[in-house]
Amino acid sequence: MKKTIAAFDFDGTIIKNDSLWSFLKFSIKTPNLILGLTVLSPILILYKLNLFSNWKAKQMLFSYFYKGMPLREFDDYCSQFMFCITKNVNSDALSKILSHRKNGDEVLIISASIENWIKPWADSHDLNTILATKIEIDNSGYITGRFLTPNCYGKEKVLRFLSLYPNRNDYILYGYGDSKGDKELLGLSDYSFYRKFN
After folding, report:
1. Burial category of 102 from C-beta neighbours within 10 Å (exposed 0-12, middle 13-18, buried 19 and up)
2. Is 6 in contact with 97 (CB distance < 8 Å)?
3. What domains can you pick out in the chain, each with its CATH number?
4. pTM value > 0.70
5. For 112-166, how does the pLDDT look when each residue is reduced to its tens digit (9 = 90+)?
6. What's the rounded Cα separation, in Å, for the pair 185 and 188?
7. How far apart are the C-alpha atoms of 39 and 53, rounded to whole Å?
8. Cα Rg for the chain, rounded, in angstroms?
9. What DSSP string describes 38-76?
């Protein structure tokens, strides 16, 4: 009998908002945030106009605010941020996660967001598999500002998923997402749910 896997996007699916912007507001003082967004505004405008790639814009944004920060400090912010995530959880998504787990299905999170701030919430719900964007840390334990993995978005979601579950005929896949970054994963799924859970 084939096992069942349920893959959930995070931003806009499990939670109602964009966790990157929420985390920025949570972890960066307002004057510094305003200054940084002003400096980066040309890049953000080009991104909005589809003239600059998602991962490049995201990495530049992340690097500006977090490059040189000790990983320990960053992870402390991530642990505290779980409260903000919990407030914004989509109750329908959580119900569906619990339903899959009750049925004995394997549930995972697959997201373009940074793994570090997803993990505390995932751990609190015993969701042990997270396929997300990983950040690079130098030998001294400081954030380099670069991503260790490609941004887990679009086709990269499928590549990351299949690297973990390569034998596609061995399982039934349920996919849940809300944006164009989930299109390829939903296309891979036997049962796909776009901005819905039933």
Report:
1. exposed
2. yes
3. 3-194 (3.40.50.1000)
4. yes
5. 999 999 999 999 999 999 999 999 999 999 999 999 999 999 999 999 999 999 9
6. 5
7. 18
8. 17
9. HHTHHHHHHHHTT-S-HHHHHHHHHHHHHTT-BHHHHHH
Residues 67-125 have pLDDT tens digits of 999 999 999 999 999 999 999 999 999 999 999 999 999 999 999 999 999 999 999 99
109 residue type, one letter: I
What is the C-alpha to C-alpha distance for residues 5 and 104, in angstroms, rounded to an integer? 9
* For helices 30-39 and 19-27, angle between their N-to-C axes, nearest 10 degrees: 130
- Report the distance separating Cα 119 and Cα 189, nearest Å: 24
**What percentage of the chain carries pLDDT values higher than 90?**
95
* Strand locations in 134-190 (E): 135-137, 143-147, 171-177
Instruction: Please tell me what DSSP assigns to residue 134.
Output: P
- CA–CA separation, 156 and 149 (whole Å): 10
Report residue 151 as tokens.
């941004």
Of the chain, the end-to-end C-alpha distance in Å amounts to: 23
With both helix axes pointing from N to C terminus, report the angle between 19-27 and 115-124 in degrees, rounded to the nearest 10.
Answer: 100
